[in-house]
Amino acid sequence: MGLMRIDLLSRRRLLQSASALVASTALPAWSRAQEAKGGGRLVVAADSEPKNLNPAIVASNGVFFIASKVVEPLAEASYTAPGGLAPRLATAWDGSVDGLSVTFRLRDGVKWHDGKDFTSADVAYSAMNVWKPLQNLGRVVFANLLAVDTPDPLTAVFRFSKPTPLQLIRNALPAVSSVIPKHVFEGTDIAKNPANLNLVGTGPFRFAEYRPGEYYRLTRNADYWGKDEPKLDEIIYRILPDRAGAAAALEAEEIHLAAFSAVPLSDLDRISKVPGIQVVTKGYEALTYQLVVEINHRRKELSDLKVRQAIAHAINRKFVIDTIFVGYATASTGPVPKNAPEFYDPEVASYPFDTRKANALLDEAGYPKGTDGVRFSLKLRPAPYFNETKQFGYYLRQALAAIGIEATLGNADAAAHQVAVYTDHDFDLAVGPPVFRGDPAISTTILVQSGLPSGVPFSNQGGYENKALDSVIAKAAETIDAEARTEFYRQFQKIVAADLPLINVAEWGFITVARDTVLNVPDNPRWAVSNWADTALRS
Amino acid sequence: MRPVRLIFGTTEGAIGAVLLSLLVLIALFAPVLSPGDPLDIAGPPLLHPFSMARLPLGTDSLGRDVLAGIIHGTRTSLTVGLAAAFAAIALGVCIGLAAGFSGGLVDEALMRVVDAFQILPGFLLALALVSVAGASLPVVVLAIALGAWAAPARLMRAQVLSIRERDYVAAARVTGMHPLEIAVKEILPNALPPVLTLAAVIVAAAILTESALSFLGLGDPNIVTWGTMIAEGRNVLRSAPFLSVLPGLALVVTVITVYLVGEGVTQALAEGKAGQVDRQGPTA
């Protein structure tokens, strides 16, 4: 016991001097020389290795987690800045009264990692050649973008063919506006450019090295525009695909930080009591995931509102929150989460847990229980991306059994699940985790809007069609006035909660578990996918 | 009754047979021993064993009864094990018999197919098949059987090759018996016993393969399997190790039981054969 303690202490000291990791892992010994600076090396668990790491093309959290330190957006979400938006590459933004243009003032004196100057030409190139045609979210947000004018090197004017609300552009900026260098990408096949992996950006860290299956290494950008930033010398993303492995690595002090709930929720209670480890729930407010029951309205029974209401009443949200999410989630009332106060409307139809009422609704709808207690059977496909979506699938099967609906669970990997649900429509109910990205128009209205081609993931593929809802969505998309636009989204929430094109069950942010030597962990609502310029290690 | 007595004659066989009967009884009477759906949420989550009389082995992270899971898991494991072994041996015996009895080109062709299956690692084959065809119990059984039929086929062929040269087979041929009749009536019964001793090995391997597939998330999520229980317990391995340990123990006990029975059968067959030779000796 005594021996072990000495061993632990000496290991801890070693880690703080930032070189223990060199000894304890297979990493080479490149950074020993930087010890003296006191910046230190932050080692972080990463669970995936995206094939394309370019955040301008793939605007997803898995990519941002690594790439946001290298490639910066025009603005970043903030707890304190006015309007919840802090300047990054843009210092000011202004929309015209008619909603047909937005003018960005850009930051002066910013240099790309290869030494060239950052100018408005880079913003124009990124917007017209990447965000609008190639990016998953940019396709929606910049659908009506006509051109980007560059009257001078520090001004970019976005011109739209239809009125485009500044509110939407502002809310979308952190996720959709990663700027990439024109001089690196121009004239090449953008999708195949090597800079999609060996990123060139303006951010506080430079992309140094990637070893498949082992780690990504980012190093300090000494020429960063932020004063005295970044604080760290280096960030290592160690690939730890095994979720149970992240907790063990934290305890063994092999890594400093595991974000995105890499440590399973059910293990948090235990690990929070380990000395030297902190469990952080802040820093994901602008990345709210929603637990949603997707419904295939082509199925006769499910096209009946009473049946959908019965299913909504059959779900015990308290159980879902307390048991599946171990308390780290909130019950949903509708398609907009509570931590989007700008849009959230609590005055919507609600469905308290009531098995008797659910049974009565199903009887009314004309689906009586058979002699075996079963009314009808259906196919339930829980998305396999998260432990929680799978567990909710198990729970929902039992909850449905209690009201006489026999659900058969499907089992598929991520790729097969997406094809089955979003392309082949081979499901009756599915459990999905869509993301609310600060504005309903970015990735939320698409979940219920009709007329979308099949094959678009995380969109309405259940065959739901509601002209009234479609018209509210269309009007909101073109309303410039923020008040009026917000009012449309209140209506949107009321209609969705009343007509149940899908059932919103819970909403959750992720959890960060870190050694307590890591400082400034959650300093903005998108912390895990922000630039970490002021993250530091206590020495 | 003689084979049964012989199996009980060996220590391994006796222990194995008793344990196996117990497991079969548990599997058969699972709905009586633990009524209702074992996947139902039965109590508070992560209840440790022996803390509530109603749930003696505790509950998992959703509150499902661990004891119910283990009881109903016995059913899944034995069903998959027996069904896969039956399918593998049936297929292997047919192919082996056809190859050994026909000889020539048919033999060559069939044996190359057997080779092809034998060089494929059975688990990889099962993984590939289940991920393509979807995870349901029949698919899992088929996938395991496809990886296991080559060994019995080979053994069967070797037996047939030796038996078809025996005098009584030649005699049958001379009396004008149809070749198919010879194969089924004369050769099959005599060639079968050694192949059947493979059954235990295949059952045990099938149970393990099924658990491994479930552990990797390729099991049928609508039924309880030990592999799934172990995999789900892994998330809370540090705080609730019993969730993985208990189904793991069940798996170990079952596989050892099947091996013991197999050992008993092999020894019984060897002794039986020796007895037959003794009896035949003087009369011949």
Describe this structure in words.
The complex is a heterodimer of chains A (539) and B (284). Chain A is an alpha+beta fold and 539 residues long. Chain A has 3 domains: 8-70 and 203-285 and 511-537, D-Maltodextrin-Binding Protein, domain 2 (3-Layer(aba) Sandwich); 75-185, Alpha-Beta Complex (Dipeptide-binding Protein, domain 1), CATH 3.90.76.10; 288-508, Dipeptide-binding Protein, Domain 3 (Dipeptide-binding Protein, domain 3). Chain A contains 17 helices and 22 strands. The two termini of chain A are 27 Å apart. The model of chain A is unreliable at 1-37 (pLDDT under 50). By secondary structure, chain B is mainly α. The longest helix of chain B is centred in the C-terminal third of the chain and has 42 residues, at 242-283. The model of chain B is unreliable at 277-284 (pLDDT under 50). The A-B interface holds A 243-244, 247, 264, 266-267, 269-270, 319, 323-324, 384, 387, 391, 393-395, 397-398, 401, 408-413, 416 and B 37, 39-41, 45-46, 61-63, 131, 134-135, 217-222, 234-239.
Overall shape of chain A: it is globular
Global mean pLDDT of chain A: 89
CATH evolutionary superfamily of the largest domain in chain A = Dipeptide-binding Protein, Domain 3
Which CATH-level-2 architecture of chain B? Answer: Orthogonal Bundle
**CATH topology-level name of chain B:** MetI-like fold
Overall structural domain count of chain A? 3
The helix content of chain A is 25-40%
Span between termini of chain B: 26 Å
- What is the name of the CATH class of the largest domain in chain A? Alpha Beta
Q: Radius of gyration of chain B from the CA trace?
A: 22 Å
The CATH class name of chain B reads Mainly Alpha
Shape field of chain B: elongated
Largest sheet of chain B: none
Q: Could you give me the name of the CATH homologous superfamily of chain B?
A: MetI-like
Structural class of chain A: alpha+beta
Residues in β-strands, percent of chain A: 15-25%
Q: Which spans of chain A have pLDDT < 50 for at least 5 consecutive residues? A: 1-37
Fraction of residues in H or I helices of chain B: over 70%
